[in-house]
């Protein structure tokens, strides 16, 4: 399948936007605590999408059962992973966080099999999962005392796991609701804003300090990386379809590692780069169709 010029531009733009989110998180943490950062980016993203659906004259859901599912989805798709990545980046580089985020499709596949949403794992899918595990180990380097901070990397892996849970939950409980993607994303961000804002009184950190660069980074993260990114993603899916749009999965970790190296002067160990490559190969293998295994 050939990618159109418009599709190529959208893929490159979305990969840059999502890949740079880890950079903006790292910079924003210079002035904000993880929970402050998470709540602020959620609110900014929700405001952007509210403006979009207002312009389109779309309606938010009004029934309580749907909002119940939206709050659960907001917890596992937005509030928890965004906070976990912010916590992780207090201990690991932005490029490492972006690389570990790439394990999301593998978590989704493993969870789908575990909860019987997928009936079987083909040989290639199993190989993909094993490669993803190996790639994560290469990034972690638990045998190296001077390697990546284990707790920080674990936060990032838990965030990717949370994304995987969210995809399965949403496909089961929200996809049948016949909500447009923009309305669904807006509603989720509203719910996530409420959840994270409610946690702010529990935050023991001091009030955000004033420094131009972290505040600008937060604005970019919330407005573009959390709000407009959804709009770009849906435009890409309309242009290239879900299969074509999935190419972004392979580019985001590359963008995050490259931006961390170029802008933040992060030192990327060779084993971590190898780990990213192995994870991407694992994702590719897991998305291939295996021949049925003989019984």
Could you explain how this protein is built, in words?
The protein has 295 residues and is an all-alpha fold. The protein has one domain (5-115, 148-268). It has helices at residues 5-28, 34-56, 64-88, 94-101, 104-114, 123-140, 150-173, 181-199, 212-245, 248-263, 270-286. Helix 1 crosses helix 10 (248-263) and helix 3 (64-88) crosses helix 8 (181-199).
Q: Which residues form runs of ≥5 with pLDDT under 50? A: 290-295
Seen as an oligomer or otherwise, the chain set is single chain
Radius of gyration: 19 Å
- What fraction strand? under 5%
- Estimate the global geometry from the Cα principal axes: globular
Output the helix-strand order. Answer: HHHHHHHHHHH
Total beta-strand segments: 0
State the domain count: 1
Distance between the termini: 34 Å
Q: Helical element count?
A: 11
Keywords: Membrane, Transmembrane, Transmembrane helix
Subcellular location: Membrane
Membrane topology: Multi-pass membrane protein
Protein name: EamA domain-containing protein
């Amino acid at each position: 399948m050939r990618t159109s010029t418009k599709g190529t531009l959208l893929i490159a733009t979305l990969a840059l936007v999502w890949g740079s989110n880890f950079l903006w998180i790292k910079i924003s943490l210079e002035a904000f605590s993880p929970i402050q950062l998470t709540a602020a980016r959620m609110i900014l993203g929700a405001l952007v999408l509210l403006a979009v659906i207002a312009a389109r004259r779309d309606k938010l859901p009004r029934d309580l059962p749907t909002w119940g599912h939206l709050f659960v989805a907001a917890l596992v798709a937005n509030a928890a992973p965004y906070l976990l990545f912010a916590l992780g980046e207090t201990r690991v580089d932005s490029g490492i966080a972006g690389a570990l985020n790439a394990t999301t499709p593998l978590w989704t596949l493993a969870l789908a099999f575990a909860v019987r949403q997928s009936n079987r794992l083909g040989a290639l899918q199993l190989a993909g999962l094993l490669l993803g595990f190996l790639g994560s180990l290469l990034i972690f380097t638990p045998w190296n005392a001077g390697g990546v901070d284990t707790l920080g990397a674990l936060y990032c892996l838990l965030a990717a796991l949370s994304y995987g849970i969210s995809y399965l939950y949403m496909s089961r409980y929200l996809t049948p609701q016949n909500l447009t993607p923009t309305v669904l994303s807006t509603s989720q961000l509203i719910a996530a804003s409420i959840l994270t804002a409610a946690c702010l009184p529990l935050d023991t950190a001091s009030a955000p300090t004033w420094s131009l660069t972290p505040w600008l980074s937060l604005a970019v993260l919330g407005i573009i990386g959390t709000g407009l990114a959804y709009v770009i993603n849906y435009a890409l899916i309309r242009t290239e379809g879900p299969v074509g749009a999935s190419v972004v999965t392979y580019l985001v970790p590359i963008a995050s590692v490259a931006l961390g190296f170029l802008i933040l002067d992060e030192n990327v160990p060779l084993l971590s780069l190898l780990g990213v490559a192995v994870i991407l190969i694992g994702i590719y293998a897991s998305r291939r169709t295996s021949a049925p295994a003989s019984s």
